[in-house]
Structure formats: C-alpha cells, structure tokens
Write a structure and sequence with these properties.
Multidrug efflux transporter AcrB transmembrane fold; 2 domains; elongated
Length: about 500
C-alpha cells in the first residue's frame, strides 16, 4: 500500500514553495490591488459614438488622473454586442437647452409610428464642441418591429433628423408671456367744457393716438416673447458601437468634475453620454474592509466550533479540537495561496486583478469548499479509528486518504472543468471571479488531502519533539565521520 503519511514533509515543502512567493509579494512588494469597494472612489460607465481603442483608453485614464487628481484610474472596455436592436442617437443643438426642451423632443420621438420606445439619456448642456457652445441630447431608440415578422426598421441619422425637424423646434426655455394687452382708454383731464369744440377735437385726436401707440407697443411685445430664441438642430449622430467604457478611480468625483471631464472627452473623441455612475465614500469603504475581515474570521470560528461538535465522539475533547485546528490550518493555506497569487497577478496586470467584494465572495466560497473536502477525509479517519485497534494512527490516516482520494479528486475535477470553461470563455469581472475560485478549489483539494491530515498525524505523534534529536544525531554522525577520515 502506498504510504502517503511518510511523505508529509515533502507535501509541506510543496505548499511552502507555492505560498512563499505570494507572501513575499504581499509583505515586501505590498501590492494587493484593492478596488474602490475597499478604498472608496467612483465608477463611471460611458458610451461613445465610436469604438475606443486600448491606446485611447489609456489616454482617458491619464486625463482623469491629471485633471481630477485621481488615484489608480483604470479604464475597462466591454464586449461590443447588441442583441436588442436598440440604437443610440445624439442630437446636437446650437445653444444651451433645458429639461423642458429635452422632454419635448422625447415626446415627439415617441409619437412617431416607426419608433417603439425612445428613452432620454444624460445630456451635455452648453459644452464646447469644435469651437462652439452646443448641447448634446442622447436618446436610446428601439424601432418598431415590421408587420411581416422580419427584422426591425433600421434608423439612420437622416431619418431621425427628418422626424425631429418635421415640426418647429421649441424655444430654449419657458416663454415669457406678457398677457393680453388691455385697450387703453382716454384719460379725462379736467372737467368737460360745454362749447369747446376745438378742445374736444384735440382731446379726441390725442386719445386715438395714445390708443394706437399703446396697442402697437403691446403687439410688438407679445410677438417677441412668443417667438423667443429658436433652437437649431445642427447634426444627428448614430452610435456605431455598443461598447461600454468603464472608468474606475479611487477618488470621489463630484457631478461638476464629471461634467467637465466628459465635456473634454466629447470634444476629443466625439459624442458621448454617461450611462451610469456609482460612488463609494471613504467611510463605506472602511466598513467594507472591516466586514470582509470579520466575515473570514467569523467563518473560521464557526467552522472550528462545528468540527469540534461534529467530532466530539472521537475519544476526547482534545482530539476533536485537533481536528478543528487542522481544518483551520488547511483553510488558511488556501486563503494565503489565493491572496498570494492575486498579489502577483495584480502587480503584473493591475487592471484585471482587483480585490473587490466579488473577490471576497470567491475567497469565502473557497473556504467552504476546502472545509467540505477536509471533513470528508476526517470523517473517514474517525470511522477507521473506531474499527481498528491494532493499526497505528499513521496507518489509519493513510488508509483513510487512499479510500477517499478518488472521491475527492473526481468531485474537484468536475468543478475544475466547469470553472476552466468560464475562465476561458467568460468575460468581464466574472472571469477574475471564476479564476479566484479555480485557484482556491485546486489548492483546497490539495490541502485537504496532503496538508490537513498530515498536520493531524504530526500533532497526534508530537513529532516536533524528535526534530531536535534528529538534528543532533545527524550532527553527531557527521562529526564522527569526519574524525574517522582524519585518523586515516
């Protein structure tokens, strides 16, 4: 029978070779790439009319860092897929407009029979674009499905321009209504004269002139107010990509800062709108860090208590405590492996390997999976300990490992195959999440078989008491060998 317990120090050495590089990276390089969940900051999702290249993304990150004094600004580019048929159009107007203006345009778009749904997006009002002050109103438009059951009507920029300008555009803001002008009446000055015909004629003339002048003035005022300043539609842009550009920075960005930054991006890269923005303040980030640490500690304590209760019938409370502590050691082994690998990968690829709440979820999942495998092995050791009265503890552990190894490896293999597929073919944040799971589950399978049980054997036999004796004997034998050679 293959003796695994005799090679326990080899297994410990392999674990050390895996963990030590990560510990060096954590302690000396100090590069655990924390996300904004733990440091605070802002995440902004932007949609550009045209595709943003990796070089342009780096330029955007550099501009955010220089203008807003942000820390660790990263730009992520999503996949360019569109399965909904929804298109984005930007309407450029020649002057600043207000929310009422945007609502009027939106209602006009939704009133078209060829448009199923039009949704207003975040506008950029009164910004500089190509040397002039303009406004950009983005709209997400879903065309009506054709009656024949075929694909939906595809809109062009010219179609939207035609439909928007079919009627007169509204003015820039609320029209100042002066009200209907009252017809002025002649004021009576003094008392009427009985026979002053000339005076009466003059009075009548003055009254008529005053009435005409007042009416003309009222008419002129009403005309100017009702017309206001007309807005001109300068251009319509249709989005050529469904790419989402995510800018993540570990600095809180105010609304005014975001507007200024986006105005620059508009003038540099063309039409743009902000689809989503989320911020995490410093106090929330510190709470998230504390809760993440408490979650790992609480899980470890709960596992220790559970194993102590579950293995309370192994002979003594001391023995059940040993089972629990060895399971925790294997658990910490897996956590250190994942953290170490993530520290190295975060140093090499800072934009792709970030420690966020999703990563903490992966670590907690790895802890659960590792303990599950360890309990399976420990349970077989407990059963064999009850049955065997003649075999040593080493032999019992070795037999239990050989009996459960096939089951543990087969279970882990199916999970590893699934996670490997997700790592290869999934995109975005789920890829890093599944990679952390993959690393942790492989490490958990190894530690459950080759670490937890071996620590239990070493603890039960108290082998550390013989380490000093073995070293002393080796030194003695070495010195004796040297003496014999010298005498010759």
């Amino acid at each position: 029978m293959f003796n695994l317990t005799a090679k326990k120090y080899l297994f410990f050495l392999i674990s050390g070779l895996i963990i030590v590089p990560g510990l060096i990276s954590l302690l000396f390089v100090g590069h655990l790439n924390l996300g904004i969940d733990f440091t605070g900051g802002s995440t902004v999702d932007l949609r550009f009319q045209n595709t943003v290249s990796r070089t342009q993304a780096d330029q955007i990150a550099a501009y955010f860092s220089s203008q807003a004094h942000t820390r660790d600004t990263n730009v992520y580019l999503s996949q360019q897929t569109n399965t909904t048929g929804v298109e984005v159009f930007w309407l450029e107007f020649d002057q600043p407009v207000d929310s009422t203006f945007q609502k009027t345009i939106l209602s006009r778009l939704n009133g078209q029979p060829s448009i199923a749904v039009a949704t207003a997006m975040n506008p950029l009002i009164g910004v500089q674009y190509q040397g002039k002050t303009v406004s950009f109103l983005p709209f997400s438009i879903a065309p009506t499905q054709s009656t024949s059951g075929g694909p939906a009507i595809q809109f062009t920029a010219a179609d939207i321009q035609k439909e928007v300008t079919a009627a007169a555009l509204p003015t820039t803001g609320p029209v100042q209504q002066t009200g209907a002008a009252a017809t002025p009446t002649a004021a009576t000055t003094g008392t009427a004269t009985k026979t002053a015909t000339a005076t009466a004629t003059v009075a009548a003339t003055k009254t008529a002139t005053a009435t005409a002048t007042a009416a003309a003035a009222a008419s002129t005022t009403a005309t100017a107010s009702s017309s206001g300043t007309k807005v001109q539609l300068l251009n319509v842009f249709k989005g050529s990509t469904n790419q989402v550009v995510t800018v993540q920075t570990q600095t809180f960005l105010s609304t005014s800062q975001l507007t200024d930054l986006e105005a620059h991006l508009l003038d540099t890269y063309g039409p743009i709108f902000q689809s989503q923005v989320s911020t995490v303040g410093p106090s929330i980030a510190s709470q998230t860090t504390l809760y993440a640490i408490l979650a790992v500690v609480a899980a470890s304590i709960a596992i220790l208590v559970y194993i102590g209760i579950a293995f309370s019938n192994v002979g003594s409370l001391n023995m059940s405590f040993k089972y629990g502590v060895c399971a925790i050691i294997a658990l910490l082994h897996d956590v250190l492996v994942v953290l170490g690998v993530w520290s190295i990968l975060g140093f090499l690829f800072p934009q792709d390997f970030v420690v966020d709440t999703l990563f903490v979820t992966a670590v907690l999942t790895v802890i659960g999976f590792s303990v599950h495998d360890t309990i399976v092995v420990f349970d077989r050791i407990r059963e064999n300990s009850r049955k065997s009265r003649t075999e040593s503890f080493d032999q019992i552990v070795n037999a239990s490992l050989l009996q459960t190894m096939a089951r543990s490896l087969n279970t882990s293999f199916t999970v590893v195959v699934t996670l490997s597929s997700l790592v290869l073919f999934a995109g975005g944040s789920i890829r890093s999440f599944t990679l952390a799971l993959l690393i942790g589950i492989v490490s958990g399978t190894y530690s459950s078989i080759f670490n937890a049980s071996m620590f239990l054997v070493m603890w039960e036999n108290r082998e550390w008491r013989n380490w000093g004796k073995a070293k002393s004997q080796a030194l003695t034998q070495s010195s004796r060998g040297v003496g014999v050679v010298g005498n010759k």
